Amino acid sequence: MKVLIIGGVAAGTKVAAKLKRENRNCEVTILTKSKDISYAGCGLPYYVGKVIPERTQLIVNTPEKFSKLTGVTVQTEVEVRKINTAEKTVDAVYLKSQENLKYEYDKLVIASGAEAVKPPIEGINLQNVYYLRTPGDAVAIRDAVEAGGIKRTVVVGGGYIGLEIAENLAAQGVRITVVDMAENILPGFDKEFAEYVENHLADQGIMAFTNTKLEAILGEEKVEKIETDRRTFKADAVVLCVGIRANTDFLTDTGIELMPNKTIKVNEYLQTNIDDIYAVGDCATVTNRLTKESAWSPMGSTANIAGRIAAKSIAGTAAGKGYQGVLGTAIVKLPKLNAAKTGLTEADAAKAGYNAVSVVTVVDDKAHYYPGASNFIVKMTADRESKKLLGLQVLGQGAVDKMVDIAVTAITMGATLEDVENMDLAYAPPFSTAIHPFSHTVNVLLNKIRGEIESISPTAYANGEAKDYKVIDSSISPSIDGAQYIDLTEVNGELDEFAKDEKLLLVCTKGKRAYMLQNRLKHYGYTNTLVLEGGTTFNELEI
């Protein structure tokens, strides 16, 4: 069986390598227009920041090494121009000589990836306008920084790659401004979490200007400033991270079904609507595991999972349900803060028809007395009726990935909050807390659903929904200027200064002590108290 794969990097090479392991007799050929067959695209920002010292470390496999390792034939600098589905042939061009080539296949895999979006604006071709999609892009940026030619950079785009390159350039002493036309940076996070990160970045010297549209890049020969619909920013370099676009233009007139965003539509076995043609990686759309709606997931993790399933499907060894979809899981390292998320946001869960309920907690990430202990800020979302876990977002200096990975496992298995309430998770002081921070948040959300804690979310508070409430400082010691202080340990009966139905907003550093005070006040007949979720750690108070 002849299997032809268009494209390498993560998806194409995964299909090829796995297919040869499934059936050594398959004749597998990769065609790629790049000189590199496989490189660590997700590592590019860290090469710029010198976390990865050498360019060679970005190259996962050379064509020669990959061929020897797997038995796959690799032909680089070959660009596919046309697929003849009826003939089962592919027309291509050898870029070095412009020689026309034709290849036959029994099975075809399209792993043509995606390219950086290049907005049609003035100055797009000036010197020091960069993208970050290939090792060559990363080398160019790092070389310019090392040469001393870049002191002030505007990163256009506040997604994960944009923020990663911002962090790494800032670590090299470059002054960074991020502009994004969206309402917030960090797509896929709820608004209040994105805004918290924006404020944190500002504290670290990285200003993020949202709702700001890039209109032009200005300069004589090289970048001198950018013009937006809000103001002009000085810069001697611009890194454009405004998104990517699937490389599918060559599929015109093939009959292969495309989605509105020009990605290829596939089923759970990565098959297109044309017999014997598959698609994987950044050029293909998969599904969301929770909503069953189409989802584009241009991630290295998705590419590898899809590539493996496609290979087994081609080899006839696929078992089970195929690819059941993605959860939108993502993680990003920022200056002194990590951010991760999976599943549905509170807003998306409501749009999907769930009766969404969420809670924000601030929990210890390890034993508080252990050196290096810090906090996780967590938002957990579930369905109020079924208590099915739907999503998690987490910020912190520590291992936010462990929190999200637990949630991924639970959501994938269709777990409810009660299913994961008392899991036997790993504990030792250097790693976690006796009640795991994930379990702690589950407990708080269950308490909220059951009415055992009556709280107000940071979003509701910011929207003024507690404006009629009197702020009560319930911290260990007085810490909120202008607020009346109540020491929890001294509350052993009714409080003469408050009516039983008085509206009291209980606030402490994290929320835990405020909850304990509410519990005690309820016992003494106080009926109108609210706990501010996230406390002063997450909220900016207005007294």
Strand arrangement within the widest β-sheet reads 5-2-1-9-21
Envelope shape? globular
Major sheet, described briefly? 5 strands, parallel
The helix content is 10-25%
Q: In DSSP terms, counting alpha (H) and pi (I) runs of 4 or more, how many helices?
A: 13
Number of strands: 33
Instruction: Give unreliable regions as ranges.
Output: none
> How much is the radius of gyration in Å?
27 Å
State the end-to-end CA separation: 73 Å
Q: Helix/strand-derived class?
A: alpha/beta
What proportion of the residues form beta strands (DSSP E)? 25-35%
Query: Taking all residues together, what is the mean pLDDT?
Result: 95
Describe this structure in words.
It is built from 13 helices and 33 strands. By secondary structure, the protein is α/β, with parallel strands linked by helices. The strands form nine sheets. It has a five-stranded parallel β-sheet. It is globular. It starts with a strand and ends in a 5-residue tail after the last helix.
Which key features would you list for this structure?
single chain; 543 residues; alpha/beta; five-stranded parallel β-sheet; 25% helix
List the helices and strands and how they pair.
Layout: E1 2-6, H1 9-22, E2 27-32, E3 38-39, H2 44-48, E4 59-61, H3 63-70, E5 73-76, E6 78-84, E7 89-94, E8 99-104, E9 107-110, E10 114-116, E11 129-130, H4 135-146, E12 152-156, H5 160-171, E13 175-179, H6 191-203, E14 207-209, E15 214-218, E16 225-228, E17 232-234, E18 237-240, E19 244-246, E20 264-265, E21 277-279, E22 284-287, E23 294-295, H7 300-315, E24 330-334, E25 337-343, H8 346-351, E26 356-364, E27 375-383, E28 389-396, H9 400-412, H10 437-450, E29 455-456, H11 458-462, E30 470-473, E31 484-485, E32 504-507, H12 512-523, E33 529-532, H13 535-538
